[in-house]
Structures are given as structure tokens and as C-alpha cells.
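Cross-posting from the modeling subforum.

Setting up a comparison between two proteins and wanted a second pair of eyes on the formatting. Protein 1 (sequence, then C-alpha cells):
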Amino acid sequence: LELQVPDQPVVALHGNDVTLNCSFSQAGSFNLSDVSVFWHLTDTKRSVHGFWMERDQVIEQAEGYTNRTSLFPAELIMGNASLLLQRAVVADEGSYTCFVRVQEYNSAALLLLVAAPYSKPEVTLEPESNLRPGDELALTCVAYGGYPKANVIWQDGSGRNLTDNITTSVVANEQGLFTMTSVLTVVLEPNSSFNCRLINPLLSEERSIFVTVTGW
């Protein structure tokens, strides 16, 4: 029995459905009653979904997957043992093993990653007013609801990186999504421009905000 699963990690958008592809080829003909499929978490062996005796078997399904998993039963006879996982969340990340038995058996594992886009960043200043050239200024850039951790880059108006003076922190909410806060400390010049950029490594997606601060 030959199994095929993706070599590269499968990326699911948070809150969206994702299909974990697993296909098998079996020499000779077989009936649906011959097919058993088990999906489990590779590390803990906890059950995610089971199918045998021509029906879903979810009695031992791990907590958190209830009413969120299904196979494609009409396509099992054609060798499709893929798992549909609904409403993906950060906690779903990890390695999943697809186990198929048709007379003979085999298994293969794939990696699921979850991604969520960040909100457009917002920038606040401290102090907010009475700014003069030569004053020390703290700019705080905040973006919400993203995953995984973004790469935060601060640049000046001419595109030079200002990474030496940055403090970045990450806080997770109940869903595991991140709020990223990055503070840049600079000495103000008469007209200073700053660009806060957040790059989500999984989505190759960038969010940025450009601010100009005028000192009197």
C-alpha cells in the first residue's frame, strides 16, 4: 500500500477550513468495507478521526475536534483518505499521521501550520506634544490578531533600518493570536519620518504604517 502526503507544511488560515491531503494506491480491487482510515496526532497518538466498517468512528476522538473533522467517503474507494478540518485554530498546529489499511497498511505524516493576518499597525508617540529637535522620542507600533510572530522592521524616511533601538514584545490572546508591540526610541530631528513594518513569515504578507514627526 502506497501513501502520498504533502512534503511541505500545509498552511491553514485561522478560522478557515483546511484539507490535509492523503491518498493511497492499492494493487488489485477492493470494497469500501475493506478500508480503514485513522488520522491521529503524530506526537501523542491521540485520535483525530477514524473510519472503518464503512462509517465514521469518532468515539475516541480527541477533545477539541468534535464536529470539525470529516473524510470524503465517496472518494475513499478511489484512494482519497484526506481529512477536512473545519475552522482551524492555532491549537491545531502540529504533525498529523494518516494511517490507511486495505488488506495491507501504511502510514505517513504531514505538518499543519496556522496563520492569521495582522491588523494595520497603529503608532503612538511619547511625549505627544511640545517636541523639539534633540528630544528623546518613543514611538510605539501595535498590531493585533496575527499569527505566527511577525518580523518587525523600523526604518527612517530614507529606508535605513533602525533596529538597534527597538524593543518588541508579544502577547497571546485566548485564541493564541498575537498582539505585537514594538517601541522605537530615537532622538528627534527637525523633520523625522518613520516606517513600522510587520512581515508575517507564513503568509509573506506585510502591514506597515508611515509617520512623520515634526519638531519645533
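Protein 2 (same layout):
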Amino acid sequence: DVFEQPQHVGHKKIEFHISTDIPSVLQINSEREEKNDLYATTEEINNTGFGRIFPAPTSNDKMETEEEYDEIPSEFISRRELEQNRLSREEMEKLSVFKNYEPGDPNCRIYVKNLAKQVQEKDLKFIFGRYVDFQSEVERNMFDIRLMKEGRMKGQAFVGLPNEKAAAKALKEANGYVLFEKPMVV
């Protein structure tokens, strides 16, 4: 029972706040990296200890991550998260659900199958909501999710998006995304 019941654990962020100055060993390592020197002396290797601790990221790194998050509100999935949790093309080719896969003709309504039992409309809104501009009332009204929970259509959904361009982008990015340990076929 313990191993068969999937438990979704969210991402945990671990931070270390080091208030003291950077130790001399770490300064040597960072200077060596700046010089692109690939070889270290045996004395430097012996003094480094087990593992390395690097200083906090510079403001440039923080700005890059902020730009990505500014792109889409946090209530929807990020592009990075979509890419990380998606099967590769090789993995898709090995699975039977992708065996006869064809994207179909461009349309503003996309069809999603191979959904897990516990998938709800809010999960699909979290994924496909990123392709809708919720500031626009027209686009907000056109965004529609029909999740089939009973009968022969169980595990399938129809998602209406505002235009064909958004639907094509959603199809390309979300196809193969693993949701509740099952890859979606879009």
C-alpha cells in the first residue's frame, strides 16, 4: 500500500544564508573559474573539503528569473515547469498512447486524452490558462474546459482556447506533459 499510492510532493526550496565573508578557499575557486583555469593544484584540492558552497547569485541571475515569472501570472504553470515535466520525443515514441499520434488540423479547440482519474478542471486550467489573456473579457469567455469524468469518454477533455495560434502553442508545449504520473496526449 505504501508504494502503490502516489503522493504528490511539491517542490521545496532550500536556502542558505551565510552572513560571514567568503572564505579564502571559495575566493580561490571563484577566481580560478573566472580565469577559466581548468587545472587545480593538489594543495587547492586538499584544502577545499567536501563539496563547495557558492555565494548568493548576482542581481543579473535574479533579474533573469524574475523576467520569466513576470511573463505569466503564478496561478498558471511556468514554461520551465512544463518543459521539465514533459516526456522527450523518444520517450513518447515508446509509449502505446502516442503510437498513432497526429496533431490534427489547426483549431481553437484542443482535445486532451490519457488523463488520470484524479485530474480536475482546475488542474487543466492551471496548465492551459497560461495561453489565455484573462485581462480580455472576450478571451476569458472563450476559454472553456470540458472534462469527461464518466462513461466511455472518461479521462478525456476538450479545451477551448481564444484562437488557433494559442491552441497550436498549447498543443506543442503541453503534449506529453506528465500530470498525476500519466502523460497527456494533446
